From TrEMBL:
This is Translation factor GUF1 homolog, mitochondrial. Belongs to the TRAFAC class translation factor GTPase superfamily. Classic translation factor GTPase family. LepA subfamily. Belongs to the GTP-binding elongation factor family. LepA subfamily. The keyword Signal does not apply. It comes from Polysphondylium violaceum. InterPro entries: EF-4, EFG_III/V, EFG_V-like, G_TR_CS, LepA_C_sf, LepA_CTD, LepA_IV, P-loop_NTPase. GTP binds at residues 13-20, 96-100, 150-153. It is a peripheral membrane protein. It comes from the Eukaryota. GO terms for cellular component: mitochondrial inner membrane; mitochondrial matrix.
């Protein structure tokens, strides 16, 4: 396929607007999915169970993704389409992008390999926050955007309203909207001519030396690292030796081809095409997204780099049973081969033992990783409450990044602390406007803008501390707007903040994993709450226990538990020795399920509960 017969495009949408269903439909329409994986009869069957549908959606590969119905890892697939107008075959490369705000980075890197995008909008819900965010990402990447209104089969579909929104918000002509139902297949055939005619072919020179853009990679258990590459100029063949422009490392091309939908070897890939290359790398860390590949002895100018994945949320992850440390470590190492956006370093806690401090793109990403650890690697872990990274300027002028509350310096050592900020865009039906403004203000937000949108809706723009957003902001937003408001955010640098470390002491000994970095206005409340919660879960001990929450030497809250001699055998009247032994054994067993925190023992269950509730 010469470049003028190739189209590279992606599908962008707000979550649940039907991106996955549409992708699957495009593949099955062009015969790219084998019939036994995705039966062609599902239309006539009408409504199927949601889960059943999900399972069949080929593009969502990982188990977690399937359960949550989100695409985490971008998947890419090529298909062949015969255009009615000129009778020619076209190679259409669909580059799948994740649909959640945590994964904006993956969206932007996938878009670099495209010339066009289908912007899918739900005919009932209309334009939402991520519709806008993704549209602007696509625009910034210079893509031709084709508006697609989906779910027109639904009785509540309001196509005219959505057309109007698309016109008002982005300036699309109503006639340019493609109307489809990804579910029933209605209108699907109209998508292909729109892609062929409106998306420009890739530019690039087949005669120039090979230049490839690495835009995605993953780890395959059998084949090692697989990279997805967009050939910008020239061509690359099996057996070629290619060089990474960023590391100058050389790799032999062990295998290459197109995704159709699984890897299909082709021997070579050509200008404008998107394909996979197996370069014999050891880890996905070597496959730097945004890197340029060229042929050995034919260096080319590297493309301007991508922004690297940025971890915004950190948490300590510990094995529930400290004996499982080694197996958790191995699980992490394997997991990181498949997801290079997680960061991990060793950490030790006096309460939890050996574990890891991990960085995630966002809270959903953290959830996905925890779930994968459990489902794919059988690891049962304790996660400390998540925190954002703080920038601390010390009185000696040095700067320190702190992503573990336990490492936060004492107040007298700190000149000032800065916290990460975001700009949040919230789209909501106008009736929830007031409640949302209040929520943002309560979350230390500053309003930057508000706009009235078509269809009794408003868009609010707020500057917010990231730490507020990663706690329960999103849940609250959904709750007060009955699920209608949507949020999208981008990173907005650091800003000075009046935060302090609130530490927890048990009989004056600090329990590091319970420390938290908290804004001054919340410190009192946080301190009181955690002390109360702890009191509830600590069993009476042989000695009195003082529970305190403090900033530096200032105690914010305290509770105490009086001493009790816990003599289980006291219940045994008489001298039945076997009964007595049994009880003692039982007590020993119970001990195993206890966590030692400082001088105090806690039941495992209580401790897990405490960690979950923060
Ligand atoms: P994604 O999050 O954008 O990938 O959305 P999905 O493709 O997973 O779709 C979200 C939900 O909408 C699923 O329950 C789909 O079955 C449903 N859906 C998708 N397209 C249509 C459509 O055209 N009509 C109807 N009625 N439902 C659809």
């Amino acid at each position: 396929y010469p470049p003028n017969k190739v189209r590279n495009f992606s599908i962008i949408a707000h979550i649940d607007h039907g991106k996955t269903t549409l992708s699957t439909k495009l593949l099955s329409y062009t015969g790219t999915l084998p019939k036994n994986i995705y039966g062609s009869g599902e239309d006539s069957l009408g409504l199927k169970e949601k889960n059943e549908n999900r399972r069949e959606q080929y593009l969502d590969k990982l188990q977690v993704e399937k359960e949550r119905g989100i695409t985490v890892k971008a998947q890419t697939c090529s298909m062949v389409y015969k255009h009615k107008e000129d009778g020619e075959n076209y190679l259409l490369n669909l580059i799948d992008t994740p649909g959640h705000v945590d994964f904006n980075y993956e969206v932007s890197r996938s878009l670099m390999a495209c010339q066009g995008a289908l912007l899918v909008v739900d005919a009932c819900q209309g334009v939402q926050a991520q519709t806008m965010a993704n549209y602007y990402l696509a625009l910034d990447s210079g893509l031709e955007v084709i508006p697609v209104i989906n779910k027109i089969d639904l009785p509540t579909a309001n196509v005219e309203m959505v057309k109007q929104q698309l016109k008002e918000t982005f300036g699309f002509h109503p006639d340019d909207c493609v109307l489809v139902s990804a579910k029933t297949g209605l209108g699907i055939p109209d998508i292909f001519p729109a892609v062929v005619e409106r998306v420009p072919p890739p530019t690039g020179d087949p005669k120039k030396p090979f230049k490839g853009l690495l835009f995605d990679s993953w780890f395959d258990r059998f084949r090692g690292v697989i990279t997805l590459v967009n050939v910008l100029d020239g061509q690359v063949k099996k057996g070629d030796v290619i060089v990474s422009a960023s590391s100058l490392q050389e790799y032999e091309v062990l295998d290459l081809g197109v995704m159709h939908p699984e890897q299909e070897p082709t021997g070579a890939i050509y200008t404008g095409q998107v394909g996979y290359i197996t370069p014999g790398m050891k880890t996905t860390q070597e496959a730097r997204v945004g890197d340029t590949f060229y042929k050995k002895d034919f260096p080319v100018e590297a493309l301007a780099g991508f922004k690297p994945a940025k971890q915004m949320v950190f948490a300590g992850i510990y094995p529930v049973d400290s004996l499982d440390y080694q197996s958790l470590k191995e699980a992490f190492e394997k997991l990181m081969l498949t997801d290079s956006s997680v960061s991990m370093s060793r950490e030790h806690s006096n309460a939890l033992g050996q574990g890891f401090r991990c960085g995630f793109l966002g809270l959903l990403h953290m959830d996905v990783i925890l779930q994968r650890l459990e489902q794919e690697y059988n690891q049962i872990v304790i996660a400390t409450p998540p925190t954002v990274p703080y920038k601390v300027v010390l009185t000696n002028g040095k700067e320190k990044m702190v992503s573990n509350p336990a490492e936060y310096p004492d107040p007298e050592e700190i000149a000032n602390t800065q916290e990460p900020m975001i700009v949040g865009h919230i789209v909501t039906p106008s009736e929830y406007y007031g409640a949302i403004v209040k929520l943002c203000m309560d979350s230390r937000g500053i309003q930057l803008n508000h706009e009235h949108l078509e269809g009794e809706r408003a868009k609010l723009t707020f500057s917010l501390p990231l730490s507020e957003v990663v706690t329960d902001f999103f849940d609250n937003l959904k709750r007060i707007s009955s699920g209608y408001a949507s949020l999208d955010y981008e990173d907005d640098g650091y800003k000075e903040a009046d935060v302090q470390k609130v530490k927890v002491l048990l009989n004056t000994e600090e329990v590091d994993s319970l420390s938290a970095i908290v804004h001054r206005s919340r410190a009192q409340r946080h301190g009181r709450l955690i002390v109360k919660k702890l009191k509830k879960i600590i069993d009476r001990q042989m000695f009195a226990v003082a529970i305190q929450a403090a900033i530096g030497n200032d105690v914010l809250a305290r509770e105490s538990i009086s001493a009790m001699r816990k003599d289980v055998t006291a219940k045994c009247y008489g001298g039945d020795i076997t009964r007595r032994r049994k009880l003692l054994d039982k007590q020993k067993e119970g001990k195993k399920r206890m966590k030692q925190m400082g001088c105090v023992e806690l039941s495992q269950e209580g401790f897990l509960k405490l960690m979950k509730s923060g």
